[in-house]
Amino acid sequence: MVGIVTYGSYIPRFRIKVEEIARVWGEDPEDIKNGLYIYSKSVPGPDEDTATISVESLRNAMARKKPSGVGAIYVGSESHPYAVKPTATIVAEATGFAPEITAADYEFACKAGTAAMQTVMGMVKSGMIKEGVAIGADTSQGAPGDALEYSAAAGGTAFVIGNENVIAEIKATYSITTDTPDFWRREGQDYPRHGGRFTGEPAYFRHVLDASRKMMEIMKTKPEDYTYAVFHQPNGKFPSRAAKTLGFKESQIKQGLIVPYIGNTYSGSMITGLSAILDISKPGDRILAVSFGSGAGSDAFHIEITKEIENYKKENAQSVWSQIERSKFIDYAYYAKFKRKIKMGE
Amino acid sequence: MRDVVIVGVGQTKFGEHWEKSLRALAVEAGLKAIEDAGIYSKDIEAIYGGNMSAGSTTFQDHIGPLLADFTGLAINRIPAIRIENGSASGAAAFHEGFLAVASGNYDTVLVGGVEKLTDVSMEEITEVLSGEVDREWELFNGATLASLAGLMARRYMVEYNTKREQIALMPVLSHKHGSLNPYAQFKNTIKVEDVLKSTMVADPLTMLDCAPVSDGASAVILTTMENAKKWRKDGIVKVKASSVASDYIALQSRENITRFDSTVEAARKAYKMAGLEPKDISLVEIHDAYSIFGLIALEDLGFFKKGTAGKYLEEGYGNLDSRLPINPSGGLKAKGHPVGATGVGQIVEATLQLRKEADKRQVPDPKNALTLNIGGSGGSSIVHIMEVVK
Q1: Cα distance from B285 to chain A (closest Cα, Å)?
Q2: Torsion of CA B90, B91, B97, B98, to 10 degrees
Q3: Cβ(A12)–Cβ(A44) below 8 Å
Q4: B153 phi/psi in degrees, rounded to 5
Q5: Which pLDDT belongs to residue B390?
Q6: How far apart are alpha carbons A210 and A206 in whole angstroms?
Q7: Which of B31, B34, B50, B247 is the most exposed place for a label (fewest CB within 10 A)?
Q8: Is A26 an interface residue toward B (CB < 8 Å)?
Q9: Of the listed A78, A131, A304, A308, which one is catalytic?
Q10: Going by DSSP bridges, is the β-strand pair A168-180/A3-10 parallel, antiparallel, or unpaired?
Q11: Size of interface A-B (CB pairs under 8 A)
């Protein structure tokens, strides 16, 4: 039985409201809120990056249950602090798993974290390792004035995946991958570019809907068979529409829909929604979790909660929703400072 | 001049065709038209293709031969010519095809229109499409086509004491009809308040006053009456008039910016050629690239007195069962505006209506139909009148 042994998330406490960004660029905040279904987004503090967010997430997971045999750490992100030099080594050292461990960084836009989960699942299943860590974390970039600036946020989630004492069994995973250039950032560029409306139908919806339908076909399930569903959340509109198209009700997606308050945490997005669902899950609950990464692909997971969750010490770390509530709103000037958008002297 | 008859029509759905290229769209519409006419490719003697921006959006020029090649006609070595006339490229291509058959030079020609716009960003599209107004005198000074339409709307409101709500009735009508058209880009109905609340584009025009960016293709087969009677038992639609007129391309050169003089002139010539008056027209497809264009066009075509179109729309003119059904296809606003395909698409709709094949959006028993395709802000206007023969 391969599944989640423990999990933890980290969301920076700083937030900026849509109104504040819209004020600076002369946009109508109501248009943005109605169009994107985002009210505010998380902002990393000046000393936070993907490495610190990954470490905090894993520490939260470890506070809930101490892993007993971690043999691999994979960190998925599109904002690794270094172009060459892994984030995973920093995480391995900071959490005490180095040096007898294999580690690497992953990149697949917003689904690098779930790609890491699949890798660890395979290694655990094959017997290569007893347990492994899969992390998705980002301090994502949106060019000033671009639509992405309203959503590009920071946060992450870590899973320890193993085959003993799992609180949530990952019964199956299924992926869709195509070469779809909907969103990209070239080496050396500060901000990503995107294909506007092309990011919708042919990119997000095609992959998320296909992966979800195929997963349900494989598991012979229907939307009503799931207690919860969570989809990648580039904004509030896309996952809500995907859920409705597939036949899920609002009550099934509400717990995991965190984007309206913290924005899109990219590699951390869907999995932090999943983390929020695990925060309240009970034995027997079924979860459909589907990520999406531009470029493009989707990973779907069919997850079932085990009895082990009853003995699990969730309370040893802050829940996702309490981290969402733990917020400090900043203005655009602080935002520009924290995100290092101000050109400094030599 | 010989009688010219529309013997076959074909079109793609208008909208965002992420997985279809320029050539794939053109081939789809062209082959449907050939199939609809019940003819073989060897029967086609020439191709006229309307397209505005392939060179700028897909870097593909020389598309006449390209279309001949991919519709399987290159082997016949027939002439294949691309016509560019801004947003009126489609109707301009149709006009050339009409002249070619009417003159006796060719018996059967394929007229197509195609545009593929969604391959590039919205900023690039705005730049490319604004190329149909005066780049040096208008664009370089900050105007876009939308802002010129905004100026026209503002002046129109002042001059004729027209309410903003009356202008908004145009997209409301187009969406109502588009909701019934399986080929339309938008199938949602909208209300006046939706138009007013929508995102501002160029004051007073909002997003819902403006036609969308679309991909699509349309095609028709034109031939002689003699051939048409051989090939079709019924549904023979004759082209009664084909008329083109131009105006000063930039707004600042015009005497009056609440009027399209090119439309007035093209309509005058078309009515004369067809031997008809505005009151004789059964239905119209007009160029509502911007809501205000629709109101102005209805007046310039002679249906309503200057400044009164909004009032007539309020009274229910335009509906399918009204005295003057307007844009039964959904118009540029709801059916979509794949620029080069738009004008040919209007003629496809007119033909389907006259053949009574327009299904849920069918106008009751139309005798004839008028189409108006406008280039830019009225730099050119092209009017066609079609009539059902049997």
Answers
A1: 29
A2: 160
A3: yes
A4: -65, -45
A5: 74
A6: 6
A7: B31
A8: no
A9: A78
A10: antiparallel
A11: 14
A28 in B contact zone (CB under 8 Å): yes
- The pLDDT tens digits of the residues spanning A256-312 come to 999 999 999 999 999 999 999 999 999 999 999 999 999 999 999 999 999 999 999
**Domain B4-121+213-237 grouped into CATH 1.20.1260.10:** no
Q: What is the CATH number of the domain that holds A130?
A: 3.40.47.10
State pTM to two decimals: 0.85
Give the residue on B whose Cα is nearest the Cα of A32.
Answer: B199
Quick one: closest CA in B to A28, which residue? B199
Reduced 3-state DSSP string for A258-314: CHHHHCECHHHHHHHHHHHHHCCCCCCCEEEEECCECEEEEEEEEEEECHHHHHCCH
Query: Which segments of B77-139 does DSSP mark as H helices, in order?
Result: 89-102, 122-129
- Helices and strands in chain A: count of H runs, count of E runs: 12, 14
User: Å from A52 to nearest chain B CA?
Assistant: 36
Q: Do residues A198 and A328 both lie within one domain?
A: no
Closest CA to A210 of A274, A300, A119: A300
**Order of strands, edge to edge, in the sheet holding A131-139?**
A102-106, A70-76, A131-139, A154-162, A3-10, A168-180, A295-305, A286-290, A228-231
* ipTM for the assembly: 0.71
Q: What is the pLDDT of residues A229-238, one digit of tens each?
A: 999 999 999 9
Q: Is A346 a member of any domain?
A: no
Q: Are residues A33 and A118 in the same domain?
A: yes
Q: Give the separation between CA A56 and CA A23, rounded to whole angstroms.
A: 33
pLDDT at A197: 83
Please state whether beta strands A154-162 and A131-139 pair in parallel, antiparallel, or not at all (unpaired).
antiparallel
Q: How far is CA B134 from CA B56, B124, B125, B131, B365, in A?
A: 17, 17, 16, 7, 42
| 8 Å CB contact between B11 and B36 | no
Cβ within 8 Å of residue A93, ≥6 positions away: none
Chain A contacts of B18, Cβ < 8 Å? 198, 201-202
For domain B141-212+243-388, which CATH number applies: 3.40.47.10, 3.90.320.10, 3.30.2090.10, 3.40.50.1820?
3.40.47.10
Do B147 and B258 touch, CB atoms closer than 8 A? no
Number of domains in chain A: 2
> For the segment A135-165, what is each residue's pLDDT rounded down to a tens digit?
999 999 999 999 899 999 999 999 999 999 9
Q: Is residue A72 part of a domain?
A: yes
B121 touches chain A (CB under 8 A): yes
Question: What's the pLDDT at A324?
Answer: 98
Can A315 be counted among the known catalytic residues? no
Task: Test B18 with A198 for CB contact under 8 angstroms.
Answer: yes
